[in-house]
Amino acid sequence: MGMRGVVISLSSISRLMEGKLHQASSLTALRRFSDKGRILSEEERAKETVYIQKMERERLEKMRKKAEKEKAEQSDKKDEGEAHKS
């Protein structure tokens, strides 16, 4: 009985993942249209792709800086704690 539950949940997870992949591919297809419903030219799609990549790089850089800042703060707190113990 227990094994059957595992098999059912694994199949459910795989169906969910397939749904997510389908959503991602449909979003990609939607990206090829402008707000006015016309199909974007190759040049417009290229500009859009560059813009999206730039935004993604900026977002990742921001997350990296935030993580470094948090790590430095934790290190400072740890150093202060050791100084008080001595």
Molecular structure report:
This is ATPase inhibitor. It comes from Lithospermum erythrorhizon. Residues 61-86 are annotated as: Disordered. The model has no long low-confidence stretch (mean pLDDT 75). The protein is mainly alpha-helical and 86 residues long. The longest helix has 44 residues, at 42-85. 85% of the residues lie in helices and 0% in strands. The protein starts with a helix and ends with a helix. The chain has two helices and no strands.
Helical segment count: 2
* Mean residue pLDDT: 75
Task: List the secondary-structure elements in sequence, H or E.
Answer: HH
Distance between the termini: 58 Å
Alpha carbon gyration radius: 24 Å
Structural class: mainly alpha
Percent strand: under 5%
Biggest pleated sheet? none
Contiguous runs where pLDDT drops below 50 for at least 5 residues? none
Shape: elongated
| Percent in helix | over 70%
What is the number of strand segments? 0
Features:
2 helices, 86 residues, single chain, mainly alpha, At2g27730-like, ATPase inhibitor, 85% helix, elongated
Secondary structure blueprint with pairings:
Elements: H1 2-30, H2 42-85
Q: Can you describe this structure in just a few lines?
A:
The chain is 85% helix and 0% strand. With 86 residues, the protein is mostly helical.
